[in-house]
């Protein structure tokens, strides 16, 4: 019982003395007791932090929105720091009128607000051949979901007037990597945004300030940050990022390419290796995320016994197309070891495959588009490990 608990019987400092006044934190930050909630990289994954990635701490988050300061970062040549008044966005190629927009010009187009997930095509890539990294931050953390404010890419293209022969669009960044990807015109005119805000505030420099491309449901690599050039053409450009990278080598030696959409996928974020069960037997909350580049999530199944019994998880919160979905499954833990898995099904009826099914279909050599079912082993002491079962 609580009898004699000094946290109840003694007056605490925060109860006795006044705290900091307003203006002590003109731009707020999290509690000092949340200092473990940070992006992290895996030092041995890349040769240098300039062309590298750090990961969203998914195990520390809830709901579907990623706080701006925790969105994973993937840069090919570090963070470009661009003053908005010095930024230009050019539209040229197969258009009636080549145009250059300033940020002030972009602000005069009608704005839209949309919530979308962004997943790097390489997310879970290190897990293709077997369980490797111990934490959903590292296995699944090249993922974020925020509300973007921006203008329809369609409006900018219409302003320039796309010629009938203009079937492809090249999007290029202003950073030192000059990141560029070819996008089919149909997608460019459909739901792409040229965004300058995320979660209400200006984009962070890490996310492409002052402006980035939003390509809903498609490979994160195509969401060009520090967007400076849009060229209309009649064929894909076949640049490095769509030939030597972001293609999938199959068992027969051929490679899949133009695999733009991100497949239906899910992961249990807690319990997970970095979020073990510390409360012992009894009432336990399992939670996770599901998403699909095809639209909304229809259902998430979860198992705690490695697939012997499946339960329909409880989806909670908004169910938006091409956004993260939050699921929960509450159960009484009897203290025995568990094998936790989740399996998502999207609105098109596509079902998340097992990793064995993926390898059977696509061979052993892939990196990108690993949407296989993740297994966490829970030990009797509540510790959690990344494993594979078959
Ligand atoms: N855009 C530019 N200009 N430079 C880059 O290095 N990285 C791409 C994409 N856009 C990149 C870029 C990759 S591989 C991904 S996964 C996403 O941005 C990551 O977006 P984020 O850093 O906002 O998470
Ligand atoms: Co990427």
Descriptive notes:
- With 390 residues, this protein is mainly beta.
- It has 2 domains: 75-256, Alpha-Beta Complex (Sulfite Oxidase, Chain A, domain 2); 265-387, Sandwich (Immunoglobulin-like), CATH 2.60.40.
- Helix content is 10%, strand content 31%.
- It has helices at 6-9, 13-16, 103-106, 136-140, 153-160, 185-190, 355-362, and strands at residues 52-54, 73-75, 88-93, 99-102, 111-119, 143-152, 168-173, 180-184, 193-198, 201-202, 212-214, 227-233, 248-249, 255-256, 265-270, 282-291, 297-303, 311-312, 314-316, 325-333, 338-346, 375-378, 384-387.
- A 5-stranded mixed sheet has the order 4-3-12-7-8.
- The longest helix is centred in the middle third of the chain and has 8 residues, at 153-160.
- The radius of gyration is 23 Å and the shape is globular.
- The protein starts with 5 loop residues before the first helix and ends with a strand.
- The model has no long low-confidence stretch (mean pLDDT 96).
- It binds ligand MTE and cobalt (II) ion.
- Ligand MTE is lined by residues 71-76, 118, 120, 144, 173, 175, 177, 179, 206-207, 220-221, 223-226.
Q: How many structural units, i.e. domains?
A: 2
- Looking at how many chains there are and whether they match, the oligomeric state comes to single chain
Instruction: Calculate Rg over CA atoms.
Output: 23 Å
Share in β-strands: 25-35%
Bound molecules: ligand MTE, cobalt (II) ion
- What is the CATH architecture descriptor of the largest domain? Alpha-Beta Complex
The SSE string, one letter per element, is HHEEEEHEHEHEEHEEEEEEEEEEEEEHEE
Q: What's the CATH H-level homologous superfamily of the largest domain?
A: Oxidoreductase, molybdopterin-binding domain
CATH class of the largest domain: Alpha Beta
Please give the order of strands in the largest beta sheet. 4-3-12-7-8
Question: Quick check: average pLDDT?
Answer: 96
Distance between the termini: 45 Å
Identify low-pLDDT runs. Answer: none
Which class best fits the helix and strand makeup?
A: mainly beta
Count of helical regions? 7
Number of beta strands: 23
Question: Might you state the CATH topology name of the largest domain?
Answer: Sulfite Oxidase, Chain A, domain 2
Largest sheet: 5 strands, mixed
């Amino acid at each position: 019982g609580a009898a004699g608990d000094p946290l109840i019987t003694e007056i605490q400092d925060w109860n006795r003395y006044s705290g900091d006044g307003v203006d002590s934190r003109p731009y707020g930050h999290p509690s000092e007791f949340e200092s473990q909630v940070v992006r992290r990289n895996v030092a041995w994954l890349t040769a240098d932090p300039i062309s590298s990635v750090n990961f969203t701490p998914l195990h520390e988050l809830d709901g579907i929105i990623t706080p701006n300061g925790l969105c994973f970062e993937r840069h090919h040549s570090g963070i470009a720091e661009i003053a908005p008044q010095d930024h230009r966005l050019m539209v040229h190629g197969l258009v009636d009128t080549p145009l250059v927009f300033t940020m002030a010009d972009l602000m005069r187009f009608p704005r839209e607000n949309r919530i979308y997930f962004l997943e790097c095509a390489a997310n879970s890539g290190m897990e293709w051949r077997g369980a490797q990294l111990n934490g959903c931050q590292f296995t699944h953390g090249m993922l974020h979901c925020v509300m973007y404010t921006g203008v329809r890419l369609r409006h900018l293209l219409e302003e320039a007037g796309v010629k009938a022969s203009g079937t492809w669009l090249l999007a290029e960044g202003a950073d030192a990597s000059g990141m560029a990807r070819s996008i089919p015109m149909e997608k460019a005119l459909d739901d792409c945004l040229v965004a300058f805000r995320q979660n209400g505030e200006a984009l962070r420099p890490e996310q492409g300030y002052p402006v980035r491309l939003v390509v809903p449901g498609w490979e994160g690599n195509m969401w060009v940050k520090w967007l400076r050039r849009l060229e209309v053409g009649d064929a894909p450009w076949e640049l490095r990022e769509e030939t030597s990278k972001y293609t999938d080598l199959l068992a027969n030696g051929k490679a899949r390419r133009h695999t733009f959409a991100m497949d239906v996928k899910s992961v249990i974020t807690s319990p997970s290796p970095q979020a073990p069960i510390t409360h012992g037997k009894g009432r336990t909350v399992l939670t996770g995320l599901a998403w699909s580049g095809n639209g909304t999530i229809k259902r998430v199944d979860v198992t705690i016994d490695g697939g012997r019994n499946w339960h329909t998880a409880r989806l909670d919160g908004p169910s938006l197309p091409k956004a993260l979905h939050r699921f929960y499954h509450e159960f009484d833990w009897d203290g025995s070891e568990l094998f936790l898995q989740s399996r998502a099904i999207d609105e098109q009826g596509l079902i998340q495959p097992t990793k064995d099914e993926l390898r059977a279909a696509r061979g052993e050599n892939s990196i990108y588009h690993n949407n296989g079912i993740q297994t966490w082993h829970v030990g009797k002491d509540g510790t959690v490990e990344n494993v594979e079962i078959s």
